[in-house]
Amino acid sequence: MRVGAYDFLEKPFNPDKMTDLAKRASQTRRMTLDNRALRRELSDGTTIMKKLIGTSPAMDRLREDILDLGQADGHVLIDGETGTGKTLVAHALHAVGPRAGKKFTVVSCAAYSEDQLGTRLFGPMDEGGQIPLVEEARGGTLVLEDVQALSQPLQARLLTFINEQGTPAETRIIAIVNDHEQGRTVEDALRPDLYFRLAALKIVLPPLRARGEDILTLFTRLAEQFSEEYGCEAPEVTAQEAAQLLQAPWPGNVRQLINVAERAVLQNRRGSGSIASLLMAENEEAGPAMTTEGKPLKEYVDSFEKMLIDNSMRRHKGSIANVMDELCLPRRTLNEKMAKYGLQRSDYL
Ligand SMILES: Nc1ncnc2c1ncn2[C@@H]1O[C@H](COP(=O)(O)OP(=O)(O)OP(=O)(O)O)[C@@H](O)[C@H]1O
Ligand SMILES: [Mg+2]
């Protein structure tokens, strides 16, 4: 274990325990990989803000929140369904704030037993010579993933640690809620005094299905990125496929959309399959059928229109004449629609 095994079981082992352990190990592994990739890519605030795709009001608000709360430098609680961007936002908060370039330490509170976690976080230093994380993170940011999994005694220790820090806090804490057990909120999981210390500043990431046309923006940008990577054409999105993208339930949120975009590109390269069939397969796995969630038709139509203009502007690198030609639109109508959807020619040049 000292050289990196996650845990071990002695024979005869209990299958439930083994399943539980394997699940936790893979979650932890994914968290480590998520954070490692982000750390490599995004050490500065501008890069990370550029990585956030989306032009919906919810995304604009999120960007403002990141800049404001990043600067405010207090503890932050981040909540939201799986794959909505919580880990990414934690990195962004650090990168745009005054602690950029200082320590950024991440731990999952669900990855250890209570005793192990207590030692890992607060010490004393174990015989392997690992420095307690609160020491390691001093002066920087300490990210507590799966904060809902903290036991009551550890919540008490964390609260003491927070209270003993001066103002402003020496170490900034970003707590991330990762698991939404049926009907149990983070407010139920954490003692109120700790909750209020951690959640003075709070960011709740909206699920993908509530982000409207951003679904199409994300899909087209991601498909573009993957087609560059694989050296092939990006798939064209038909009206029907756009409607399906907008209506799918997306339980895995942005992470799931990234997978679908990558597979759509690979499929397109082989010249087989359609986005529709991919989504069908996704939704079979997800169970319940697609829903419109009562969104008005106009919203779909607008989203689709925006996507087509956006795509055409990209293809023609901002040449209004070519776009007018391709979409058979008079200049005035094109200008009006671009203004309506917040599209700016300068972004495509
Ligand atoms: N708005 C966005 N634009 C572009 N990429 C995004 C956006 N939001 C999230 N992503 C990407 O989606 C993937 C999932 O995001 P992230 O790992 O931050 O989600 P999470 O909420 O931490 O998920 P989990 O709860 O499963 O840990 C990452 O690859 C991330 O870079
Ligand atoms: Mg995460």
Classify the oligomer.
single chain
CATH H-tier superfamily of the largest domain? P-loop containing nucleotide triphosphate hydrolases
| CATH overall fold name of the largest domain | Rossmann fold
The poorly predicted ranges are 287-291
Give the beta-strand count. Answer: 5
Morphology: globular
Q: How much helicity do the residues have?
A: 40-55%
Quick check: average pLDDT? 87
- The biggest beta sheet, please? 5 strands, parallel
Q: Per DSSP, what share of the residues sits in E-state strands of 2 or more residues?
A: 5-15%
Distance between the termini: 54 Å
CATH class of the largest domain: Alpha Beta
Which strand order do you get reading across the main beta sheet?
A: 2-3-4-1-5
Number of domains: 2
- Order of H and E elements: HHHEHEHHEHEHHEHHHHHHH
Bound molecules: adenosine-5'-triphosphate, magnesium ion
CATH architecture descriptor of the largest domain: 3-Layer(aba) Sandwich
What structural class should be given to the helix and strand makeup? alpha/beta
How large, in whole angstroms, is the Cα Rg?
Answer: 23 Å
Alpha plus pi helix count: 16
Feature tags:
Rossmann fold, 7% strand, 16 helices, binds adenosine-5'-triphosphate, Helicase, Ruva Protein, domain 3, binds magnesium ion, 5 strands, alpha/beta, 349 residues
